[in-house]
Amino acid sequence: MSNVKLSWHYPLIASYPRHAYPLSIITGLPNSKPWIYTYYVPLVCKKNVENYTGIFLDFGSFNWLVEYNPWINSQNIKREILMKCHSDIIGFTKKCIDMNYYLFIHLDEFFIPNTEPFQKWKSPHAVMILGYNPLKRTFNISNFTKNRKYEQDEISFEHYVESFQKMETTEDYMENNYLLQINNNVSYNYDINIVMDIINDYISSKRTSYSYYRLSEAFSDDYVYGLDIYDYLKNISICYYLTWSKST
User: Are the CB atoms for 66 and 180 separated by under 8 Å?
Assistant: First the structure.
């Protein structure tokens, strides 16, 4: 059998796996871009980052791109189920691909070659499986490689099994793995009124009024929205610089 591989396009947005992976599935689909351009307007930034090593900045849609993407049928499979019910993770993954399912799965990059943490430190991270080659005994994946660029790569069956079985979950979301399948029965009509509402909220620095964005805990007083983010980032940068200059 030759290589079995599902379609993949470099996405319009590749900042986080939750954006890059679903968007690399749907970017090549007809009429998907109006939906992407509609719901990738709001921005959200976490306040009070003194105890963080970085600043959380993302699109307002950051937590629902799998569950609420009209072009994708998704199923959430907990890691516990995969561990207990699928002793042959290679066979399970191949069957998923054969049924046109992409597998969004959390693995430990310590065991994944061509990643920055490989053989250096433990690093649970989401990877998307989109194909396999039975002769080479490899899976086709999309991932953030050692240069931190989002791109396609390969992983051997052996490294795949090891990275899955030896991963230690440190956050609840790492228990979630997704089967993603293209939904070809989508008819999306671009709604200029929705876009106007979202842009108005962005300009006014409000948590967006459109109901889809009320699904995430991110829309609270702990976050900054829209254009206010730029002033906040500027002030935070100044504070970081002053703190750094005092310590050197």
Answer: yes
pLDDT grade for 219, boundaries at 50, 70 and 90:
low
Asked if 60 and 96 sit in the same domain, the reply is no
Give the tens place of pLDDT for each residue, 141-154.
999 999 889 999 99
Average the pLDDT over 209-220 and give the result.
51
Give the C-alpha separation, 39 to 35, whole Å.
Answer: 6
Closest CA to 7 of 183, 90, 131: 131
Angle CA 36–60–46, to nearest 5: 150
What is the distance in angstroms between the CA of the first residue and the CA of the last residue of the chain?
61
Q: List Cβ neighbours of 146 (8 Å cut-off, separation of 6 or more).
A: 114, 115, 116, 118
Residue 37 lies in a domain: no
Helical ranges in 103-191 per DSSP H: 157-165
Cα distances (angstroms) measured from residue 236 to each of 32, 203, 220: 36, 21, 19
What are the two backbone dihedrals, phi and then psi, of residue 36, each rounded to the nearest 5 degrees?
-60, -45
Backbone angles phi, psi at 227, to 5 degrees: -65, -25
Say if residues 79 and 103 touch (Cβ distance below 8 Å). no
Domain assignment present for residue 35? The answer is no
Last residue of a domain, one of 182, 207, 238: 182
| Per-residue pLDDT tens over the stretch 183-204 | 988 878 888 998 898 899 899 9
Torsion of CA 204, 205, 209, 212, to 10 degrees: 140
